[in-house]
Amino acid sequence: MSWWKNILGKGENPTDYETQKKIAVSEDTKKRLTLAKNSKTNKEILFYLAENDPDARVRQAVAKNIESPLQANKFLAIDESIDVRMALAERMVKLLPEISTDKQSRLYAFAVQALGTLALDEVLKIRKSLSSALKDHAYAPPAVALQLAKDIEREVSEPILRMCVTFKDQDLVEILATHPAPWAAEAVAQRSKLSALVSKAVIETGNAMAGKLLLKNKEAEIDETVLQAIVDRAPEFPEWHEPLISRHRLPADMAVQMARYVDARIRQMMLDRGGYDAATIEIVSDATKRRMQMEESLQKSKARNETASQRIKKLYAEGRLSEEVINDALALRDQEFVAGALAVLCGAKASQVAKVFSLRKPKLVCAVCWRAGLSMRFALRLQQEMARIQPAELLYPKGGTDYPMDEKELYWQLELIGIDDK
After folding, report:
1. Domain ranges across the chain
2. Is the pLDDT of residue 364 over 80?
3. Which of 8-12, 223-227, 331-335, 406-410 has the lowest mean pLDDT?
4. Which of 117, 271, 350, 375 has CB atoms 3.0–4.6 Å from 77's, for a disulfide?
5. What average pLDDT does the structure give for the chain?
6. Can you tell me the distance from the alpha carbon of 157 to that of 126, in angstroms, rounded to the nearest whole number?
7. Where does the pLDDT of residue 4 fall: very low under 50, low under 70, confident under 90, or very high at 90 and above?
8. Distance (Å, rounded) from C-alpha 41 to C-alpha 35?
9. Which CA distances in Å does 237 have to 233, 258, 397, 414, 422?
10. Higher confidence at residue 139 or residue 36?
11. The pTM is what?
12. How many CA within 13 A on the CB side of residue 241?
């Protein structure tokens, strides 16, 4: 009591409501600050100081006071002083374990509202501090964590995305689909206990580094659905090939699909892992031999100054211009050969096929591939690697193999670019 008397003066009782009221409206900043710091100060007085006190030090003391009413947060969360808002953020985070036991309570609602306001604060320092405090906090309110995760500043968003445990799978899928920064997908890919749903969403972003990080994440669930998504996209991302094969045994059909575009070293890794039936081994081995032969043939053609057009005409005349040959050329990144081969098989001009890929329209790519007599699965690769169509716009095989458009639609697409019916 002697300490209080020294501050307040003789005859003044600090626990007396009337005395506190007088101090709260006085011009004595030192006494108001002492009042704001004391846990025995009446809550109404603390509320008044939070809303009205002209000195930021007093309001900051109220923000730090563990007995301050949460109703005062609405003033403190938008206080003009950064220090006041920072102090409030720190106290709210510390209170979460205690008030989270009843998420339907008004007190919890007041706390979440304040944290939500701070998560949108214009000052980076505050959002960064809040993210750092909540990233590994089991009681982080999902709505607040989600707001921080959507932040465009890496220092705010990345820690929450990588570590916060309060997200639902659908929250992460939404973020992956909408966040503009590539590091967002990379952060999600490194999360522990990643579900297959989210793993697939990571792959669908088309982020090369995120896919690589996912494949190296031992706690990420990668089921056959995810594997198929990876194998479908892997032609675009050679850096995925080794971590995929070294850590996952592909089903036979996926192994065959992948053998069409990976290099000889990766195909040998597939064979060395074993477990495939004789037919699959033969297909993978044949793909290796065929690719080596094509690479050798390409080198000889270059030595003879033979153009891609000349090679295509020769193969076509010999009846050897097949999907496998074009697929091998695509794997070797020989885009001139691929486009020229499609033109020959379609009876079209090379300029017409080039236009198809430059327009980046999935239906046009499918129509040209169909006209050339090639499979829909190959049409998917052409959409990805030649037309560079965004993942959300890709057309996938219907039932795993069929074109997703009827003949009338396919013919109509061909007419759009001036390719006449045979």
Report:
1. 307-416
2. yes
3. 8-12
4. 117
5. 87
6. 13
7. very low
8. 6
9. 7, 12, 21, 30, 36
10. 36
11. 0.68
12. 21
The number of residues in the chain equals 422
pLDDT tens digits, one per residue of 75-113 = 999 999 999 999 999 999 998 888 887 777 888 899 999
Instruction: With cut-offs at 50, 70 and 90, classify the pLDDT of residue 6.
Output: very low
| Tokens 């031999």, residue located | 289
pLDDT digits (tens, 9 = 90+) for 153-193: 999 999 999 999 999 999 999 999 999 899 999 999 999 98
Specify whether the CB–CB gap between 76 and 59 falls below 8 A. yes
Asked whether the beta carbons of 390 and 177 are under 8 A apart, the reply is no
**Rg of the chain in Å (alpha carbons):** 32
